[in-house]
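Continuing the batch. This is chain 6 of the set; chains 1 through 5 are on the previous pages. Same settings as before, nothing changed between runs. Recording input and output for traceability.
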Amino acid sequence: MQQASRIPLCSGCLRAPEPLSAEFFCARCGTPFRNAFPLDAEGLCGLCRHGLRGFDAAYCFGSYDGRLREWIHLYKYGRIRTMAKPLAELLARALPRSEPFDALVPVPLHWRRRWQRGFNQSDLLARGLGRKWGIPVIRALRRLRYTVTQTALSHSARRKNVAAVFAPRRNLNSQRILLIDDVLTTGSTASACAAALHRAGADRVVLLTVARADRRLSALPTLNPEDKS
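Output for chain 6:
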């Protein structure tokens, strides 16, 4: 197991990241859009309309870009565990406190990846948030097999990669669960976790992440001059 690094941070790195803002977003998963075209009359995106999200709602603090991305990389790959505290503070800011929860559940790592990294980043975030709100953290999920990193995979390949990977450890008896992770990219991992929690009897599963991939930041396709009117 590798030891956590000690990297001095400049004042610029320590400035708090900006929260995500969007005029158009899915009412269930919170995906931001450039316009309302992808949403139906109920405000749902295509994935939510077709039941491809295992969770009932999703919240995040900001976009996985800029300073927030740097913070997460320092924490997750630089192994600066003390970053868990400010990141947990961002989690606390992202979720409306009007909804009660019975337990926080971190997304589990396979033991090999946890050994390589030295800690489960989602577990530390959940514990920090649990202490702040007085909500118990339970390890209600286990990872059945090791999977390749999701980074370079397509959306459909990500879903296949985590299919049947997670299993419940306990009966959740109609509990309201807040699922904790650091980053939401396509939602494949979170959906697989949420489905396992529902199989265990959870009444509601809400996803909370520090950041999410913002597809609006992707470059727009270049038009062929012949296509212009």
